[in-house]
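We emphasize that the prediction below concerns an isolated chain of 481 residues; any contacts that depend on oligomerization or on bound cofactors are therefore not represented. The input was used exactly as deposited, without trimming of termini.
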Amino acid sequence: MVFSSLLFLYAFLPVFLALYYLAPLQYRNAVALAGSLLFYTWGEPVFAAILIGVSVFGYLVSLWLARLPMEARAARRGVLALGLTFYLGLLLWFKYSNFFAAQLNGVLGWLQHGSVVWTAVALPLGISFFTFQKISYLVDVYRGTNRPARNLLDYLLFVALFPQLIAGPIIRYHDIAAQIEQRDHSWAKFLSGAWRFLLGLTRKVLIANPLGAVADRVFAHDLGTLPMPYAWIGLLCYAFQIYFDFSGYSDMAIGLGRMMGFEFTENFERPYTARSITEFWRRWHISLSTFMRDYLYIPLGGNRVAPWRAKFNLWFVFLVSGFWHGASWNFVCWGAYHGTLLSLERALGRPRLARLPALPATLLTFALVLAGWVFFRAATLTDALAYFGRLFAWSSWPDVLANPELLWPDVIGRRTWCVLGFAAFFSFIPETWWRRRGWDEALPATRSQAVLRILLGAAGLFLASAALANQSYNPFIYFRF
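Result of the prediction step, given as a token string:
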């Protein structure tokens, strides 16, 4: 079940919210947990038991850690290592065992030594996200940042809370612990959450989905004959698809949480307006960036080591981040690419980067991010390299001019141009424009703005529902991570 489905919008969500608000305050956590487990079981009935089992294990390990005195460093490190080894081993098995088996068979085939018989391992939805959550919880208990949850129910709710279970934001326990124990339920917060959810729904269904359909068609085209302009259009469609898809999901997650009284951390801050790759990663998938900083970069030494070592650590962190996104050489190259750019920017220094004019700096950053998306979207590393070639295949222009109907309007039509224009407009509009008009505020600043939000939300729900009723293309890109 996905948020952008008629089943969720008109069956699961209304019934869940009715039961949640009819329940007395002391039972709402239990209702939220039951609804969350049902939500996950609906899509992954086999893996729901694994989710509960590993959560119980993590909770018991955290209690073990909490009972050990801070002076018993060796024992505490051993218990932490046990928990981390279990979680990382689980992630390696489910997400990367197929990849490693394929690499081993490739080497054996090259050596002409046969191959290993291997049964593909199914990937549970959201395993990367909830594994990182459990790791952050154990590390924070070890560091003393937070105490273990009051009881198993609280811990299970932290792990399984359905708005953020599948694709984040990556929530840390100390950010939500007090809200699990007591949180504010009000009409103002509920309506603010509903607005945020509908905003994310329209971003996902009305912008990301149509652009994603075009991107899929273009990237599936014969890369040996793909004309240069269509290669660029396909790449632009994918760049805006992944942004509006993932940020739309985060908006829906934050909105759903707010409708239940929770406040989640922001995950996107208009990343395509960034003037450097460093700034881009402060705006894109913020919860993952901060996780990697706090639980990998800083433990490796952070900025306290020699300059060359800090740059290497930064590169290594993004290499790991790339591999976290997917078991493929494409993602490894994507992570290494961004790590290299970040290291180069650090070598150049912030003062030099700050001297660049705003518009050229933004366009250059966007172009560099676009190049990275080729690795992210292409099926294989070979396809990615071939796609780069088509982006600069100037010799294909005569074919386009001679046959303008080559992919037009079957793949790239007027609707694509319209949606692409909307996506670019809302992606690059300055932050000051939003702030001056109060659209960044959780609640409307004026009565007219409140009325406008109601009208826009109703229109967005109607149009998104109509689109969902007439289309079968409705993936969430980050579900596979």
